[in-house]
Amino acid sequence: MKVTIQSKSGELSFECEVGENLLYAGLRNGLSLPYECATGTCGTCRARVMEGEPEIGWSEAPGLSYVKQEKREVLMCQATAQGDCTLRVPAKVADGGGRGVAPEYGTGTIARVEKLTHDVMVFAVDLDTPMRFDAGQFVVVETGAVPGGRAYSMINYEDGAAVLEFVVKQKPDGRFSDWLFGDDRTGETVRIFGPLGRATFHPEEGKNVLCIGGGSGIAGIMSILAKAAGEGYFSDRRGYVFFGVRTAEDTFFMDELSAHAAAAPDNLEVVVALSDEDVPPALERKYSALTFATGLVHTVAAERMAGRWDDLIAYVAGPPPMVDGALRMLIIEARLPGTDIRYDKFG
Ligand SMILES: Cc1cc2nc3c(=O)[nH]c(=O)nc-3n(C[C@H](O)[C@H](O)[C@H](O)COP(=O)(O)OP(=O)(O)OC[C@H]3O[C@@H](n4cnc5c(N)ncnc54)[C@H](O)[C@@H]3O)c2cc1C
Ligand code: FES
Predict the structure, then answer these.
(1) Which residues constitute the domain of residue 52?
(2) How far is Cα 67 from Cα 205, in angstroms, rounded to an integer?
(3) Could you tell me if the CB of 63 is within 6 A of ligand 2?
(4) Do 286 and 237 share a structural domain?
(5) What's the number of domains the chain is made of?
(6) Nearest protein Cα to ligand 1, atom 37
(7) 148 C-alpha vs ligand 1 centroid, how far in Å?
(8) Are residues 312 and 211 in the same domain?
(9) What CATH code is carried by the domain that includes residue 136?
(10) In CATH, what number is assigned to the domain containing residue 49?
(11) Going by CA atoms, what residue is nearest to atom 25 of ligand 1?
């Protein structure tokens, strides 16, 4: 089946399977279609159907609030092709030439699950075929047990990874997180689509790195730190990592973050911000390579980064209110250009 895309940069087309997700089909064919969440919440992948009858999957997708359904607008990440169709996309779309590899479908098996706190879990997926990805990217994970896919950022980094590792925060009444936390899921098969996402770290850009992560938003930052450590990046560039959680009981990855900070003591600062309590002295004593603070993570970052905004790229990830707060701060206070701010909203 043929899908034609009319965009601000002209017309392109690609082949698509019957019943295939339109966004995923375009991306795996190398088109730079607009998207952020790839899972129905942000509205970025909106397009107008000019010809054909794509089927709408999740009729309650929050991203539909950004589309004019009466004008035949759809979310490409929630629409599937049933025959040839033509879509008008309000953006420039290129064919190939983008950064990184085009995403593909894959499968894997959950090989390890480990609870890190009362509501945070790590799980690892053994891939049937290794995947190349950039540090900071995510994949969409599907299990037959839950309708729809969920976006999860890789915490590991390896060029051609056979295993993808993720960290998941349990969402109250969240279907995937309830499934994951509900029983031992080791051995379960999952479907993967990826790699996705443009909040990526590229050492050749040579800039200092600022990372602000709230809760499981630390996921992609761990991948960035893993890649940076592998390249000795912080031997001559500076890194500033701000990790926000509510209380000391909610902290995780403390040993891993301490190891990164201890390996580059002159150039890498890792600050853990507790929003809901004063920092317990025992925590500071236990993790002496880290710095602790009380407050919202983006506020703490603004205070501690004052006067040090030059020559850096900022990475932000976590719950939408935290990401919005950090973006406001980076644009208004730090005056960073949009090209130097990369983010993933986990909602
Ligand atoms: C780019 C990105 C990266 C993310 N990375 C992480 C991460 O590393 N760690 C982490 O904990 N969270 C991450 N998230 C959030 C994660 O994708 C889930 O939203 C979260 O885990 C809650 O899922 P749930 O199933 O428990 O909750 P639910 O409320 O059941 O579902 C939440 C999301 O699942 C999708 N969804 C729900 N129902 C349907 C349906 N019927 N059909 C299709 N789709 C549906 C939607 O995207 C919805 O927002 C990320 C989100 C994004 C956008
Ligand atoms: S990319 Fe489709 S709604 Fe976010």
Answers:
(1) 2-88
(2) 36
(3) yes
(4) yes
(5) 3
(6) 148
(7) 9
(8) yes
(9) 2.40.30.10
(10) 3.10.20.30
(11) 176
* Nearest CA, atom 50, ligand 1: 346
The last residue of one of the domains, among 173, 196, 219, is 196
Q: Ligand 1 mean position to 120 CA, how many Å? A: 14
* pTM, rounded to two decimals: 0.97
pLDDT in tens, 208-235: 999 999 999 999 999 999 999 999 999 9
Q: Ligand 2: does its nearest atom lie under 6 Å from the Cβ of 149? A: no
Question: Residue 263 falls within a domain, yes or no?
Answer: yes
**162-178 as b/e: b if 16+ CB within 10 A:** ebbbbbbbbbeeeebbe
Q: Which atom of ligand 2 is nearest to the CA of 46?
A: 2
pLDDT in tens, 266-319: 999 999 999 999 999 999 999 999 999 999 999 999 999 999 999 999 999 999
In this prediction, residue 222 carries a pLDDT of 98
**172 CB-near residues (< 8 Å, 6+ apart):** none
Q: Which ligand is nearest to the CA of 24?
A: 2
Out of 196, 213, 232, a domain closes at 196
- Report if residue 95 sits inside a domain: no
Q: At residue 228, what are phi and psi to the nearest 5 degrees?
A: -60, -40
Residue 21, ligand 2, Cβ within 6 A:
no
| Amino acid found at 147 | P
211 in any annotated domain: yes
Q: What is the mean pLDDT of the chain?
A: 96
Any atom of ligand 1 within 6 Å of the Cβ of 174: yes
Atom number, ligand 2, closest to the C-alpha of residue 36 = 1
- Ligand 2: centre distance to CA 263 (Å): 38
Ligand nearest to the CA of 198: 1
Q: Which two tokens stand for residue 30?
A: 């190398």
* Structural domain includes residue 48: yes
Distance 61 CA to ligand 2 centre (A): 9
Question: Residue 123 in contact with residue 113, Cβ under 8 Å?
Answer: yes
- Can you give the CATH number for the domain in which 317 is found? 3.40.50.80
User: What is the enclosing helix (H) or strand (E) of 163?
Assistant: strand 161-169
Contact by Cβ (8 Å): 174, 181:
no
Cα separation, 53 vs 133, in Å, equals 33
